């Protein structure tokens, strides 16, 4: 398996902007949290989270290629199930439907990072003490983090997680990484 340090170097070589790296790192920790919840391979799920948007800067103008260019960049460094999850995370454009637990976890897992990050940035204590219940309220406010797809977050139900539990997993995964994620105040 691709060593994590090499994966991070690969990511940084294509995603130099700090906010893109932070989104990748946040997705990594959430995917590790979800893997732990489901007894899956945390290393593999984490790497898929870390690299899922690696082609983002290259596909900004061609969203239908987002996920497919990633396959070229990753090559054979990740196993097929991780590559499939990365392509299916953009199924709306790639047409590759999410099929496995892994695929579905990556879709909701990468989306929830935006909600948690936005909430941390408006809280006086950042990530500290964040509760799922307050995130649920924020989800109902359409103006809050408007670009974050609520529908995608609610796809947690497709992997058998009730929204509150899913949000708690995301909070618990991201809290210890708050400094690295740029979420400390
Ligand atoms: Fe993403």
From TrEMBL:
A Pfam match: HD
Superkingdom, natural source: Bacteria
Domain HD/PDEase: 16-86
Protein name, entry field: HDIG domain-containing protein
Phylogenetic placement of the source organism: Bacteria, Pseudomonadati, Thermodesulfobacteriota, Desulfovibrionia, Desulfovibrionales
